[in-house]
Design a protein that fits this description.
With 216 residues, this protein is an alpha/beta fold. The protein has helices spanning 19-27, 41-50, 67-80, 100-108, 123-131, 167-176, 198-203, and strands at residues 2-8, 30-34, 54-58, 86-91, 113-118, 142-145, 157-160, 179-185, 193-195, 209-215. A five-stranded parallel beta sheet has the order 3-2-4-1-5, with helices on both faces. Helix 3 crosses helix 4 (100-108). The chain is elongated, with a radius of gyration of 18 Å. The structure holds S-adenosylmethionine (SAM). Residues 11-12, 91-94, 97-99, 122-123, 126-127, 161-162, 184-188, 207-210 line the site of S-adenosylmethionine (SAM).
């Protein structure tokens, strides 16, 4: 039997990795993570626990990733883990939230590989801590999205991920909808910033950023 852990490495600080994540990494013979043009936050977060274990960076094409790409990734993982061995696939935040691992896990279904998920601290939870903005109080409806224009329901509080593009348009829409917003970048990392200033928010291009909002 082969074994694969889907590990959420949390928002980036290595002391926010869970003990279970560290144990799973230590138990693994091979570590997988998507190849992000040489920059890999999940790998950096866990680096001190990976040591000289074999690391396999999985390439995904720029732009739209297809089912075929996930299938190929699943095959690489299945081939790289030897019978009786354990692998760990690292994702930022939690691996069940807007993560490549979700699609890879689907493609591994039916293969002789046992999968276990190790939860990680999600980015928006770390961002709430950084900004001291409560995500929910009693009775609140909270929405998590990666595209604000897709939100069709009522909410009191919102976390919007992947806010690096079209920020001017996004902020205009939030203002029109009467939502107080705060931009948090690189939460838990040394260069973490909590930004309220509109111009600073629109100028920033960091992918590792999100917006927490609350209806006025
Ligand atoms: C593909 S999603 C991954 C979400 C992740 N699985 C989670 O649980 O948070 C990538 C987005 O997560 C957010 N993100 C991840 N780490 C972050 C951090 N340390 N600070 C702020 N935003 C972060 C950003 O919005 C980024 O564009």
């Amino acid at each position: 039997m082969k074994r694969l852990y889907g590990i959420g490495t949390g928002p980036g600080a290595s002391d926010l990795l869970t003990i279970r994540a560290v144990n799973a990494i230590r138990e693994s013979q091979v570590i997988f993570t998507p190849n992000n043009k040489g920059v890999n936050m999940a790998l950096d977060t866990a680096a001190e626990f990976i040591g000289n274990k074999r690391v396999v960076l999985i390439d995904f094409p720029m732009g739209k990733v297809t089912k075929e790409d996930y299938k190929k990734a699943a095959e690489i993982i299945n081939n790289e883990i030897e019978e009786g061995e354990t692998g760990s696939f690292l994702t930022i935040g939690d691996s069940m939230i807007y993560s490549t691992f979700i699609y890879i896990m689907d493609e591994l279904d039916g293969k002789d590989i046992e999968i276990e998920i190790v939860p990680g601290i999600p980015s928006f939870v770390a961002a709430a801590a950084a900004s001291k903005l409560p995500l929910t109080v009693k009775g609140d409806v909270f929405v998590l999205c990666d595209e604000y224009s897709d939100v069709k329901c009522n909410f009191d509080s919102i976390a919007i991920l992947k806010t690096f593009k079209n920020k001017e348009y996004l902020l205009e829409k939030l203002e029109k909808d009467n939502i107080d917003y705060t931009y948090i970048k690189r939460s838990s990392l040394d260069n973490e910033e909590v930004i309220k200033d509109r111009n600073k928010i629109t100028e920033d291009k960091d992918y590792i950023s999100l917006i927490l909002g609350r209806k006025k």
